[in-house]
Hints:
The chain has 307 residues and is of the alpha/beta class. The protein folds into 2 domains: 4-210, Spore Coat Polysaccharide Biosynthesis Protein SpsA, Chain A (Alpha-Beta Complex); 221-305, no CATH class. It has 11 helices and 11 strands. Strand 1 (4-12), helix 1 and strand 2 form a beta-alpha-beta unit. Helix 1 (19-30) packs parallel to helix 2 (50-61) and helix 8 packs antiparallel against helix 10 (249-268). The chain is globular and about 55 Å long. The protein starts with a strand and ends with a strand.
Amino acid sequence: MNPYKYTILTAYYRGDTYLxxxxxxxxxxxxNRSDFHWILIDDFSHDGGKSRxxxxxxxxxxxxxxxxxxxxxxxxxxxxxxxxAQLAQGEYIILLDQDDLLTIDALQIFDNAIARVQHRQxxxxxHARCKDETGTLVGTPFSESYxxxxxxxxxxxxxxxxxxxVCTRTTLFREYVKEIQKGYPFGFIWxxxxxxxxxxxxxxxxxxxxxxxxxxxxxxxxxxxxxxxxFRFRALDLDDHFFPLLYDPVTLLKRLILxxxxxxxxxxxxxxxxxxxxxxxxxxxxxxxxxGRLYAHRDKKKFTIRG
Length: 307
């Protein structure tokens, strides 16, 4: 029996300016609930003590159960979520970036969604939506109030775009986070769960306020890091989801070219692993390689490329 319903897990890295507002929001939610706890994993921020001071302040100000752990080196979030999954005491895990916020009713939205489908043996969790700091939905809505199915169905058959916010059964998260590597997006976890035959409940309701203004976000970094792992993830994803992607040919083409782009970088940095990929994916990558080389050439003018 889990002592909490929810574990909120934050993979933290040099986010000292965002922690006060995040702590304030979670404290506000805790005024009406006692069924969640918060785990913060510092991914070796190494910033002259700023993060250590900010995290110490969290320990002093937080008004509900929380714990902070420090990693001895930086893993780009991969080891943070692995450790957090092992420490989680909630029935469900909610990942929350340091620069984002839960909506004040987020846990109630997850409560209501879970109650609809928790009796299903294949139920893995809930995908809710995000708005930015101006209140604008990040992405496109879908027509139903709820949709129950797989991630490929949602993304490619329904062609729903935009950021999602996921509440996942801890037992499944703990199992499928094991294979994540440096450079892999966290979506790797939910993709693995979905590919194993589990389904999610998708809702248009908003549980996360997504901060687009963070200058230190990975998407704005001048470095393309761990490109060999990034290529490997993208190639496996293309391999696994080729047939659902046929419903969404524009996305298929974009993913293929992006994969070929990272393949070019990976080869130049010591090799791009093709083991386990189907002949179909290898053939498609060969066709897309001229476009990949073009984009990789442009990258070199904008980014530092690291393996």
